[in-house]
Write a structure and sequence with these properties.
The chain is mostly helical and 119 residues long. 86% of the residues lie in helices and 0% in strands.
Length: 119
């Protein structure tokens, strides 16, 4: 499961890089696309950190960072879509959907880890 999630996060980052290549070059497009690359890569990289967590508390904390970065990426993608900054509507829709699914997975994972920490 964890390896699958890691692969999925890497694929999401790759998808965001592809989205970036389809964003209109403008002040706002450049700003949002650079931030999208930062947040999507951060989610994938922090997941690697979470996999080597030193404790359950550390694992939950690092998973929380992944969730924060995924939420940021999701909102960023919606802003890009609503402002018609991406030239490929299908690609941006795919990225928004994947970000939403990943957010849901991490919310569930964190809740489960928190429940198991209490036991």
């Amino acid at each position: 499961m964890r390896h699958d999630l890691q692969s999925r996060l890497i694929s999401f980052t790759t998808l965001c890089i592809t989205v970036k290549r389809h964003i209109v070059s403008s002040y706002e497009g450049d700003h949002l696309s650079k931030q999208l690359i930062r947040s999507s890569t951060s989610a994938a990289l922090n997941f690697g950190e979470a996999r080597s967590a030193e404790s359950k508390k550390d694992f939950i904390h690092k998973q929380g960072i992944c969730l924060k970065e995924l939420r940021e990426s999701h909102i960023n993608l919606i802003i890009i879509e609503q402002n018609k900054l991406c030239k490929n509507k299908d690609l941006i829709a795919e990225a928004i959907d994947e970000a939403n699914q990943l957010v849901s997975i991490f919310v569930t994972s964190i809740k489960t880890a928190q429940r198991n920490q209490i036991k």
